[in-house]
Amino acid sequence: MNADADAAPLAETLASLPDIVRTGGIDVDAVTFHSRAPYSLAANWKVAVENYLECYHCAVAHPGFSELVDVSPENYRLERHPTFASHYAPLRDGSAEGQFHLIWPATKVNIMPGRANISVGRLVPVDADRTDGFLDYFFPPDVDPDWIAGYMEFDDRVGAEDRELVESVQRGMRSGVFEHGRLMLPSEELIGDFQRWVAEGLA
User: How far apart are CA 118 and CA 192, in angstroms?
Assistant: First the structure.
């Protein structure tokens, strides 16, 4: 449902994303809903999105994730699209590749490399320095429950690490010390696209 009566059809917004997900080995018709994980951030929704759209911070801020996934600039791929932004993360052993997509304005689609999994959720602005969100998790019905429990614990840990980052950035922005900054290209090129989408939306 979209509050804008003139909004483009969902299929037009998703564009090639369903095919990308399918090519990555996920049959969305073969997974079932497992659980919803709600969360709240003491940060503006745009700060949270920008954190999601780059991973050069991963090597330092997400040691567990970086031990599993190759986050080196030459292997962690960014991909630009008119209505969504994508990044791809291979396992260090090269056996699989994860996908992480941001559908404008604030819907996340996550596929961790390895066994079939997908999580989908959105960020909802509450006020200038608070954002609510959730992730709905889906797995095939025959996946080992112990593996799911380990996966959820891992994802919760990464989420907690990101919470510290975005809330710290929000505090820094609120201090007023910096008026503006520069994008670090090419690592932040998806953030550049997002900022253009925001500017166009405001216009």
Answer: 26
> Does residue 185 surpass a pLDDT of 90?
no
Angle at 179 between CA 85 and CA 56, to 5 degrees: 35
| Ordered strands of the 84-90 beta sheet | 32-41, 130-139, 118-127, 107-111, 97-103, 84-90, 77-80
Q: What tokens appear for 199 in the block?
A: 């500017």
Distance CA 45, CA 118 (A): 22
103 sits in which H/E element: strand 97-103
Go through the domains of the chain in sequence order and give each one's CATH number.
Answer: 10-202 (3.90.380.10)
User: Residue type at 136?
Assistant: D
Residue with tokens 């920008």: 50
pTM here is: 0.93
Run of H or E including 90: strand 84-90
